[in-house]
Amino acid sequence: MIVPNKSYRLNPDRAIYINGVISDDLLTQLAPKILSLQHESRDPISVYIDSPGGSPASMESILRLLHVTDQDRSDSCDIVTAVTGRADSAAADLLSSGDYAIAFPSTKILHHGVRRVERNPLTFESTSQLSELMRFYKVVYAMQLAQKNGKPLLVSFCHCSTEI
Questions:
Q1: Which of 16, 64, 113, 120 is deepest in the core (most CB within 10 A)?
Q2: How do residues 53-72 score in pLDDT, each as one tens digit?
Q3: Range of the domain at 144
Q4: CA distance 94 to 87
């Protein structure tokens, strides 16, 4: 039985909402709210997620912004992530990247292999490097999710989409 950590409680008053596709437009919309919450206090920030995913780069930017420290070098705010409807693709990665992750009953989480869009033509060397980078990030996200479970978790990878 998993015992909830009392330090990590969802707080709608200190929250951002990821609804819809994760994009640069969403990042632009959320940035002022995130910075305002961090300025108010260093208490945890809740991230409610109901998203089909979207841009991994935008998701990483949102995550980096959530983990920003202040000018006094205070610790970053803890992040409590919660899926309320669905968290697919980049949204699932965001969910597993929180300091404490919550899934409500009847929610859907879809993790799949890491993807990346390349602007330059692919070469043998660049595809080898890209393959290693993608494998690394796949393991990082899986381990983050396993650590939040609080129990040992066997992680296996396949080249198909898996719904959990």
A1: 16
A2: 999 889 999 999 999 987 77
A3: 12-163
A4: 8
